[in-house]
Write a structure and sequence with these properties.
This protein has 278 residues and is of the alpha/beta class. The protein has two domains: 30 residues, no CATH class; 241 residues, Rossmann fold (3-Layer(aba) Sandwich). The chain has nine helices and nine strands. The strands form two sheets. A seven-stranded mixed beta sheet has the order 5-4-3-6-7-9-8, sandwiched between helices. Strands 1-2 form a two-stranded antiparallel sheet. Helix 3 packs across helix 5. The protein is globular, with a radius of gyration of 21 Å.
Length: 278
């Protein structure tokens, strides 16, 4: 109460707002950092703190399961082969994975559909799919359609500014991803090939949750052109590459496509962005 009255008095005096901000910043410097990783550092409590709600507790259980499976070798993260401390890497990815889990649970509960369809473009080792399918499993029946080339990126699908990515991801293996996602074998459909060509092989008629993590502008926009109209009202499109400066061309492509679409885009400090479709 005293702080609120003092703030009101200070803000009524010309030229004092900036001083108040600096004083607050100085007072907060003693607060411990409660999360740091994947492009963000914050002193605020994460959702999975001691007083976590039911959803955050479910997420924590899945995160512990993933960490345990990585430690035992049951879940092999080839994209982190060079990382010695994989448990630390997973801790630093927690906010990113929480948003995957939260958005998949939200979409699964919100859309009006007899069966929930998840779709991911850019599956890699299946790490984010693991969190998304775990979230959907908590709401009832669902299916997951998982698209990836599981081979090196090719220059003909990249902008001039992205040509340094040609040849990347050659280490990926569909067999490894299948093994990683073995607990969800009955619900997952794996579609190998480059987006959007692979959509000709299999696509769901409706989508509740769409995750796009293709690391390139052209495939991202192509995926949106094919799949956007299949996303049901109340559904979520989660972009992984939206806020990172080195994926700026992808952000431009996303903004251009969504400019006249019904819905709202929420950029996140993790570099992700969620589009809530109306």
């Amino acid at each position: 109460m005293i702080k609120r009255l003092l703030r009101s008095a200070v803000y009524a005096m010309p030229g004092t707002q900036a001083l108040w901000v600096r004083l607050n910043d100085a007072a907060g410097r003693g607060e411990p950092v409660r999360f740091s990783g994947w492009g963000m550092t914050t002193k605020t409590s994460p959702p999975w703190a001691d007083d976590a709600d039911a959803l955050a507790k479910e997420f924590m259980a899945v995160n512990a399961e993933v960490t345990g499976r990585v430690a035992s070798g049951a879940l092999r993260l080839s994209q982190f082969n060079s990382v010695q401390d994989k448990a630390r890497q997973l801790r630093e990815l927690m906010w990113r994975h929480y948003l995957v889990f939260w958005s998949a649970r939200y979409a699964s509960r919100t859309v009006a559909a007899s069966e929930i369809n998840l779709t991911e473009c850019g599956v890699c080792d299946g790490l984010t799919a693991y969190f998304a399918m775990s979230a959907a499993a908590g709401t009832g029946s669902y299916k997951a359609f998982l698209y990836d080339a599981w081979q090196a990126m090719t220059g003909d699908r990249l902008l001039d500014s992205e040509q340094s990515l040609a040849g990347q991801y050659a280490y990926l293996s569909l067999d490894n991803t299948r093994r990683n996602l073995a607990p969800f074998a009955g619900a997952a459909t794996f579609v190998k090939g480059f987006v959007p060509d692979s959509f000709a092989d299999c696509t769901p008629s409706t989508i509740a949750w769409l995750h796009i993590d293709l690391n390139a502008a052209r495939p991202t926009e192509a995926a949106l052109r094919v799949l956007f109209d299949r996303v049901l009202p109340g559904g979520v499109i989660l972009f992984d590459d939206y806020g990172w400066p080195h994926w700026h061309d992808t952000k431009v492509a996303i903004d251009r496509f969504l400019g006249d679409k019904r819905g709202l885009l929420l950029p996140m400090p993790t570099g992700q962005a969620m589009f809530f479709k109306h």
